[in-house]
From TrEMBL:
GO cellular component assignments: cytoplasm
EC class name: transferase
A Pfam family it matches: QRPTase_C
Gene3D superfamilies attached to this UniProt entry: Aldolase class I, Quinolinate phosphoribosyl transferase, N-terminal domain
Start and end residues of each Quinolinate phosphoribosyl transferase N-terminal domain: 27-109
Entry's family note: Belongs to the NadC/ModD family.
Zinc found in the keyword field: no
Protein name: Probable nicotinate-nucleotide pyrophosphorylase [carboxylating]
Taxonomic placement: Bacteria, Pseudomonadati, Pseudomonadota, Gammaproteobacteria, Chromatiales
A molecular function (GO) term: nicotinate-nucleotide diphosphorylase (carboxylating) activity
Amino acid sequence: MNPLDSSIDRDVQLALDEDIGPGDASAALIPEATRMRATLISRDAGVMAGRAWAERAFERCGLDAGDCRWEVEDGDALEAGRILARFDGPARALLTAERTALNFIQLLSGIATRTAAYVAAVDGTGTKILDTRKTLPGLRVAQKYAVRVGGGHNHRLGLYDLIMLKENHIAAAGGIAPAVAAARNRFPTLAVEVEVETLDELDQALQARADRIMLDNFSLEALAEGVARANGQAILEASGNVTLDTVRTIAETGVDEISVGELTKRITPLDLSLRFSD
């Protein structure tokens, strides 16, 4: 089982445990043998994401693969009114899985949709849109998957796969140069990124041979100057108060990447509806 499959299993099981508890009292009122047809519809335009999580929820609640026919894949553009899936299966299973399945699609599609808007805004500049660690506790893998579906790129997954030297790390280590040196000595296989707030700190990070440098809350003029000074010596990431209105002008300074916290922090879920029919 790959890590994404493992994450899907865990996410769905936790969500179902939270929702069902000792049992779905409402669904228990429906005769066990009852089967129903249902249609899952998106009421909003956006980018589809989260199908695997929804499929797992329906499966865990008793639907067979043949009970569901999906009409979209993750990454598909959705218009309002688009049918995502059709069901013909046990009514109890559909009712019990409904909220959990829809929650995952709504959340992840909202992230993919927002990410796609940022990616479109920087089209042609060569700048990548990155996510951050500002995720819902327990759902980081799912949210970062949705960012990729929307055309964005993942920054580090956690505190273990990239060394990120922020202001407090640097202060505790005694400066940028000793912080980078300690990182190289302790974790020689990990890339090192240094967060800087001034052009002088950028020069220090370049001299220390950091692999990546985050330019935090730089003005457009300072970003452009930073790109000129770095001259390809390190990957430059712009960060801080990035919006859809400003992301294009930031990208046009020549930075390699722009990290956007709101991709996974300020989420507008897609509006979905699952309706039974005769």
